[in-house]
Design brief:
six-stranded parallel beta sheet, 16 strands, globular
Length: about 375
């Protein structure tokens, strides 16, 4: 696969529409800022909608199906940005066509689908990437270095409380599938899954797990149709665990938004403390602030993220949802050039799916 500015990687995006959506807000702006990529194709739910999207975004090739896009010679990397229940079929088509794949997280509706896709990619020797971009946020990378460099000394414990924004009292348009556990797209897998990956990228993996989950909002009414939906997904997730370092961890995610704390993550150590605050629990796309204190410091003070953690090529999307996605794509270029695997691949996605399954199992939901 090409990986130099002289021969850019040809990208085909599955799920880029003429309407505003995540691919439009996140992937497309980021890709267009990085010299090593060229967005050459898109596919949508029909040939007509693909043509409309291609015209709106100025993309040369439009396909009515993901299989057609994956087979196209101009596409080197297939980017999958559709709903989770559709990932398996589309990713399989891309891998069968011999293409590298970047799939949004979650990779599949559960462990079985993730394992199938990772096995297929490994068997064909294809590069894969998973959209767990919280770990590439400048703040998260800075936090990782602060901990590694001993800012807090030995980590004793960490605690995090966050709100999922969704899965509360509001019922956004098209939210039905987010309330169906079989879809694989819910508060546990999406905001909790993204944020937990960010946490473990800083502090290490979970070795021991205990958990409680609950569905406290048992009926939600769609204000447009008046239909009452009865969710079978958790809107309360409480995780207790022990990290590989021996540090104790606690995480509480709750649906909707709180009038109090919507994101607070503390890291407490023998020599100091770090606190990350923000306005919601989607660590992969939010804006957050680090404060810290150590030794004889009288109180917490803001620790500004140094400029070296920011990529100048992505200045145009700094402070937007696209930045962390762009940082992941920039690392993909380095991975391809250097033969490294810093960006989570499908094997990493399988491991993360298994952690979430362990949490559900500990809570008695498997």
């Amino acid at each position: 696969m090409p990986s130099s500015p002289q021969s850019p990687i040809g990208v085909g995006i599955v799920g880029l529409s003429a309407r505003r959506g995540w691919a439009t807000r996140g992937h497309l702006p980021a890709l267009r800022l990085l010299d090593g990529f060229e967005v050459r194709a898109l596919s949508a739910s029909s040939a007509e909608s693909a043509e409309r999207a291609a015209e709106k975004h100025g993309i040369a090739h439009a396909y009515g199906s993901a299989a057609e896009l994956a087979a196209a010679d101009e596409v080197d990397l297939v980017v999958v940005t559709v709903k989770v229940p559709d990932h398996r079929e589309i990713v399989r088509a891309a891998l069968t066509a011999g293409k590298a794949v970047f799939s949004e997280w979650p990779l599949g509706t559960g462990v079985a689908e993730a394992e199938e896709l990772a096995s297929l990619a490994a068997g064909r020797g294809l590069r894969t990437f998973t959209g767990l971009q919280a770990r590439f946020a400048p703040l998260v990378r800075h936090l990782r270095d602060l901990v590694a460099d001993g800012y807090v000394g030995e980590v004793l414990s960490t605690s995090l409380v966050a709100s999922g924004r969704g899965w509360g009292a509001d019922f956004p348009e098209g939210a039905e599938y987010l309330l169906d556990r079989a879809s694989g797209a819910n508060m546990l897998t999406i905001p909790f899954g993204h944020t937990l990956d960010g946490l473990t990228s800083v502090l290490g993996d979970l070795d021991e797990i205990s958990a409680v989950t609950a569905t406290r909002r048992r009926a939600l009414t769609d204000p447009r149709s008046g239909r009452v939906h009865r969710p079978d997904v958790a809107d309360q997730v409480v995780l207790g665990g022990v990290l590989s370092s021996g540090a104790v961890a606690s995480v509480h995610f709750r649906g909707g938004l709180s009038r109090g704390t919507n994101f607070r993550w503390e890291i407490n150590g023998t020599d100091g403390d770090l606190v990350v605050t923000g306005d919601h629990g989607h660590l992969q796309m939010g804006e957050y602030v680090i404060t810290g204190a150590r030794g004889s410091d009288p109180g917490l003070a803001e620790l500004t993220v140094p400029e070296r953690y920011f990529d100048p090529a992505l200045d145009a999307v700094r402070g937007t949802e696209a930045y962390n996605v762009g940082a992941a794509y920039a690392q993909i270029l380095r991975d391809l050039a250097d033969g490294t695997s810093v960006v989570p691949d499908f094997a990493h996605a399988v491991r993360h799916h298994r952690v979430l399954e362990r949490i559900e199992g500990a809570a008695g939901r498997v």
